[in-house]
Amino acid sequence: MHSLSLLITCEHGGNSVPADFRHLFVGHKALLRSHRGWDPGTLILGEELALRCTAPLIAATHTRLLVDLNRSPHHRHVFSEITKPLEKSTRGHLLGEYHSPHRHQIQQHVAQSIQAGGWVVHIGVHSFTPQLGSQVRNADVGLLYDPRRGPEAQFAHAWRQCWQTNSSLKVRMNYPYRGIADGLTTYLRTQFPQRYVGIELEINQRFPLGSSHSWEMIRASCRDSLSESLAGWTPVENLG
Ligand SMILES: [Zn+2]
Questions:
Q1: Ligand 1 mean position to 91 CA, how many Å?
Q2: What is the pLDDT of residues 184-193, one digit of tens each?
Q3: Directed axis angle between helix 42-52 and helix 212-231, to 10°?
Q4: Domain count, the chain
């Protein structure tokens, strides 16, 4: 019997701006408040999932417009149009002060759990804008994973099954993004080929930005379905 530990993270939990960088955002209040600035709803959802499943939460609450914690350090979108023009030393400071500590803490946690002989299920909590340009997103929830990783695919499908059995929510796989695109879970998969399951949970922002009733409902079904699918899941080592 494998031990299984759950880790919840929020890379885009808030849109706060550290005092040293406030001058950069003068005149950009609307951008900061938009989906480009943060993932509304993810911090409270992450806190509730962690509480319900007795798991640690590692959450960042600075705006992603400063430095995007869900992008690799050399990715062309790790800095936004606000921070890309800054001097190299300032960008280096942003990476060292905000980007690396968050990712390092998560990687350390996963490494320790795996070294202790267990499996780690890591849920990165995100939310997506209901409409991007002319494209209306037709899902309530997305679960992003790597289809080539057997245990990960298995867990993602089990979670979706649980969720759809107990609610009328539309849960789509690898939507609105692909699980293997650049991101924290994609990076961690390269570091932990075995016993790491990295899923990005994507919630449609029409819930946190809409009626409090439907937002509470989706959070409850998220907590229930995650806890149920974890309880019913036995990971099998990928021998391939
Ligand atoms: Zn996000």
A1: 21
A2: 999 999 999 9
A3: 40
A4: 1
Residue 193 within any structural domain of the chain: yes
The Cα–Cα gap between 111 and 80 comes to 30
- CATH number of the domain within which 109 lies: 3.40.630.40
Centre of ligand 1 to C-alpha 27, Å, is: 23
Write out the residues surrounding ion ligand 1, Cβ under 5 A: 12, 39, 126
Can you name the residues that pair with 57 across neighbouring β-strands?
Answer: 8
How far does the centroid of ligand 1 lie from the alpha carbon of residue 227, in Å?
22
From ligand 1's centre to the CA of 67, what distance in Å?
Answer: 12
Which amino acid is residue 226, in one-letter code?
A: L
The alpha carbon of 239 and the centre of ligand 1 are apart by a number of angstroms equal to 32
Q: Kindly provide the b/e burial profile for residues 81-99, where b requires at least 16 CB atoms within 10 angstroms of the residue's own CB.
A: ebbeeeeeeebeebbeebb
pLDDT digits (tens, 9 = 90+) for 116-135: 999 999 999 999 999 999 99
pTM above 0.90, yes or no: yes
Which structural domain range is residue 196 located in?
4-231
Tell me the two tokens of residue 181.
């695109």
